[in-house]
Each structure stands twice: as C-alpha cells, then as structure tokens.
Amino acid sequence: MDVQRAHEIVASPLEYEVSYNGVSVWIDKIHADEKTATVLLRRSLGESSDVDLSELKEEYLVH
C-alpha cells in the first residue's frame, strides 16, 4: 500500500478492509518515516504490530 492511500484510510470516517499477511487489521498510526505503520489485529483487540506499509493490502469486497 502506498503512503498516501494509508493516510486516506486512517483519516476517513469509513471502514476499509485492510489485511497484513492475510489477516484483517486496522491501521492505527503511520510512523514518521512514512514507510511503516502500527496495525491492530481486528480479531484480537489490543494486539498490535509494526509493519511495512508495502505489506498492507486493501481488500475490495464484492457484494
């Protein structure tokens, strides 16, 4: 995911489906280096990880 899209998702009042290694996550914050972010696992409240933005993937759900 590019940094601009990550910022858009964090700033949006809408909910977006984002995954990290196939696991659904929330982007909590983007670090000052703009290459990494802290994400929270959706299934495990409180569990967080620092990851490379390049490893985040926006999922597009088909209805």
C-alpha geometry: globular
Average pLDDT across residues? 91
The N- and C-terminal alpha carbons lie at a distance of: 23 Å
Rg estimate, integer Å:
11 Å
List the helices and strands and how they pair.
Layout: H1 3-11, E1 18-20, E2 23-30, E3 36-41, E4 48-52, E5 56-58
Q: How does this structure look, described?
A:
- This protein is mainly beta and 63 residues long.
- Helix content is 14%, strand content 40%.
- It is built from one helix and five strands, in the order αβββββ.
- The protein has one helix at 3-11, and strands spanning 18-20, 23-30, 36-41, 48-52, 56-58.
- The chain has a five-stranded antiparallel sheet with strand order 4-3-2-1-5.
- Strand 1 (18-20) and strand 2 form a beta hairpin.
- The termini are far apart.
Features:
single chain; 63 residues; mainly beta; 5-stranded antiparallel beta sheet; 14% helix
Quick description:
The chain is mainly beta.
